[in-house]
Amino acid sequence: MPPEILYGIGALVLLGILAWAVIMPRLKSPKARAIREEAIREEYEAPDQYAEDQDKLAAKAEEAEKETRKQQ
Question: Which whole number is the average pLDDT over 33-54?
Fold first, then answer.
């Protein structure tokens, strides 16, 4: 197999990965996005409180994304 074919296959794989990376953030639900923004805001405003609530906020965001996937 000539190396030129491998270059073409590699370019197609890279194109697919780049397309996936661009599309994925757009598929996240607004609810999950809002929860993540809340987590970031809380992390900077009250780092001590964020350490306690980090797991709760992550679970809420994951649950919101799962609900969005079920609806689609």
Answer: 78
In angstroms, what CA-CA distances link 44 with 13, 31, 37? Answer: 38, 20, 11
Q: Where are the domains of the chain?
A: 3-71
Which residues, including other chains, have CB under 8 Å from residue 65's CB and lie 6 or more apart?
Answer: 28, 29, 32
Whether pLDDT at 10 is above 90:
yes
Residue 57, C-beta contacts closer than 8 angstroms, at least 6 positions apart? 35, 36, 38, 39, 42
For the record, the structure tokens of 24 come out as: 């994925």
Whether the model clears a pTM of 0.70, i.e. scores above it, the answer is: no
**Does the CA dihedral 38-39-41-46 come out positive or negative?**
positive
The reported pLDDT for the residue numbered 13 is 96
Q: Are 61 and 32 in contact, with CB atoms under 8 Å apart?
A: yes
